[in-house]
Amino acid sequence: MRRYALKRVILGIITVIIVSMIIFVASRLSGDVTYLLLPQDATKEEVGRLRAKLGLDKPLPFQYLYFLKDAVRGNFGKSYRYTNREAMEIILERLPATAELAFAAFLMSVICGLLLGVLSATKRDNFLDTLGKTFALIGQAMPGFWLGVMAILIFSVKLGWLPTSGRGNISHLIMPSISIAWFSIASILRITRSTMLDVLDSEYIKTARLKGNSELIVIWKHALRNALIPVLAMSGIQLAHLLGGVVIAETIFSWPGLGSLILEGIYSRDYALVQAGVFVISIIFITCNLAVDLIYGVIDPRIRYD
Amino acid sequence: MSQTVKTEQDQPIGKTFSFMFVFKRYPIIPALCLLPVIICGIFGPLFYPHDPTMMNLGSALKPPAFLPGGEFSYFLGTDHMGRDLLSRLIEGARISLLISVFGVLLSGLIGCSLGMLAGYMGGKADEVIMRVVDAQMSIPAILLTILLAAALGVGVTTIIVAISVVFWTGYARVIRGETVSLKQREFVVLAKVTGCSKARILIRHIFPNLISTITVLATLQLGRAILIEASITFLGVGLQPPDTAWGLMISEGRMYMATAWWIPTFAGLAIMATVLGSNLMGDWLRDKFDPKLRQL
Description:
The complex is a heterodimer. By secondary structure, chain A is an all-alpha fold. In chain A, 77% of the residues lie in helices and 1% in strands. Chain A is built from 12 helices and 2 strands, in the order ααααββαααααααα. Chain A has helices at 2-28, 34-37, 44-54, 60-72, 87-122, 127-141, 144-158, 170-200, 203-210, 215-252, 258-267, 271-299; strands at residues 78-79, 85-86. In chain A, strand 1 and strand 2 form a beta hairpin. Chain B has a single domain (76-289), classed as MetI-like fold (Orthogonal Bundle). Chain B contains 11 helices and no strands. Chain B starts with a helix and ends in a 7-residue tail after the last helix. Classes of the chains: A mainly alpha, B mainly alpha. At the A-B interface, helix 1, helix 6, helix 7, helix 10 and helix 11 of A face helix 5, helix 6, helix 9 and helix 11 of B.
């Protein structure tokens, strides 16, 4: 187990380094940033001085090394949009709001996805199953942002039940988290259903039934525990969808989090802010995935010997 | 007549001719969802009821024909500029298809070549390619597309490039796995023994066996590409106003939602039907070609 854990951690670190390269390259694709920072009538000398100050006169690999050195310390430079505050500082300020939203969406997708998936599998070809399958199909096809817009139209504009935007009490959380969780609920439902169907067919479930356990215990204890493993393995991908959905939902519902901050940064070409934001989101994702891998190794020992 | 039906081999035992049987055998529902979009995409300009970009403020925010106050000539109503929604939906189908089809083809080309290379070569090449795949997958796809689209500038080509750069990882991962298992099969080993070059083995012996997997993957990716394109356009970093796109119709329609619910609604339904169609078509192809690909 220790070797497996060590290997996973090292792979995680390598992943972080490659992510930093991708971010660096993507941010350099947009060309020279000096024209954004200087007035239009700046002389060649002034441009040269600024380039030297920002390290843009050095070869690209060196620029990357400087970038990495600073990135490791969480220093992505100053955001010029927010009156020259450190980009990282602003990001960390916004992080709790995003964490709140992502956590709510995550809980919702796991609970609804598992519940509907199990019900759909146990009541096979029943009304519930048809409902579950239809939901899975439509859920994966419906754009989350459209669902958000429609929800605002119905529940805020027409019915006036829920607030349209902002962060506050639990009623602010309902629509954004549903519009994020939507896609994940459909995917978790789909995979839970198919693994539950496999598991329910197996010998040990027959044994559990023969021993006289009630159907409730057989399904929710014996079967679900084994069906959970593939669901857990898939949760990494779900998390990526979730974090991507957060960016969109925060923009629609004006949620004061990381996602809307990154988009603002992109609109106003505030690259320090964008780089720091994307980096933090990727680190969150990589850490969670590492945790999933380690839990997976504990639950299913076979995986350690791959 | 009933005699011939009963002797059909695929006929489920103990059941008379059922509709489900037809649906399993032919991709009827996916075709119903996709065909209108494809026809609009290719022949759209031939049957626009109106010019999709023509503004006519006199007839702005007209409701659909089936609501009171609607006019038959503007069947799905008009937007805040008085542009005909049906024509705009048809034009939107063109752009959505163009971007998603080229995005999927280009990303497929990159992803499949790198995946085959990684799977067949193994060793260092494999290690490097798969690490990059892992790393790229830890940036949410939508965020990376936004980042690239914003960095490269606005335009159809940009979005196609951004989508290709983001989507190749999905192909690479699956194709690598398939190639690794094909590599050990007898016909590949024998081809090697007869002295085939690596390139020849990859192209003539391994690639033909991957075509069904690639088709399934590409069909499933098509839906994702449409969703991503619509999302980034909605967020304002994709296509920009003189263009007509479904994502734009939703973001523009948001402002007039309280009075004109039809603007964002129909565009969203169009996206949903298209994505649903390509997902179902992918599922159907997978069951047809290769049921063991279930996990995709």
